[in-house]
Amino acid sequence: MAELGRDVAKARSLLQQGKLVAIPTETVYGLAGNGLNVDAVASIFSTKKRPSFDPLILHTNSLEKVRHFVKEIPAVAEKLAEKFWPGPLTILFKKKSLIPDLVTSGLDTVAVRIPNHPLTLSLLESIDFPVAAPSANPFGYVSPTSPAHVQQQLGQDIPYILDGGNCEVGVESTIVSFEGDQPAVLRMGGLAIEAIEEVLGKIEVQAHSSSTPAAPGMLKSHYAPGKSFVLIDSAEAFTLPENEQFAVLVFDELLPQVPAEKQYKLAPGGDVREAAKQLFGMMRMLDGKDEVEQIIAVKVPDVGLGRAVNDRLKRAAAID
Length: 320
Ligand code: TXA
Ligand code: MG
What we know:
By secondary structure, the chain is α/β, with parallel strands linked by helices.
């Protein structure tokens, strides 16, 4: 089992030795290693059983540090960074050669983010290298939003989990690229598209599903629990399955045609941010229930973080 604690100096020392540490962020827990140390980066890929074509995000604590490892920061990107960092936003930049190719899977762009969590920010402040950190789950499974989630799946493989409690946002960061200065969203996530559009105007969303992704990491089946997982558009689309061993994940209201004890509300108060925060924990909880063989989810309102929630639900169900 990994040791669990709030000792930033210990986490720093492990990272300096090339070891891996799970770190809290506002989105999900990350599996962190020294992003300039090829051996540490390689062990991130092997610990997660992640294919090497799926690049990692570098985490740091200031725009000044970002300048050390990217070629340029376009003015529009800087505007976005200044407004939303630290926060659930990842930006792609042209990388400098000091970033190992393994981090970016050979791409000439590198994904960077300043996460918003006090423990992790003080850790990042105390080191002079960026930290590569994918979500701290085995590849393809639901991302972890609590230290217990990390412990259950990767506890045997890492020495330390920095315990920052439950993640406040609950879905991964929104990824934005500025290829040719045209901003595009490559992954919907914890920063609402509407908030980005307030700064940049209308933005293209390329976050489509695919089983042969052009953008790495946008696999059709991803963020998936182990059980049969079905997504339906609305309460009206629900039909009772033959097998009674099912559970339904609803937004804020129970379906009248289903026994209440089979239903789980993502957001009893009707707030899409609450749904984002609860989503992965609920998926794990239902995945772990012996009496449940199939999970049926109903789409949430497609606004704000609800778009990221629906995106993850679609990937869990592996539909386009
Ligand atoms: O919220 C988050 O972003 C969390 C926390 C730990 O920061 N991290 C996270 O990392 O979700 P990960 O590795 O699970 O997802 C990173 C995604 C992948 O889908 C990857 O393909 C994409 O970012 N990505 C990374 N570098 C890229 C690049 N240069 N071009 C296109 N996509 C990239
Ligand atoms: Mg991930």
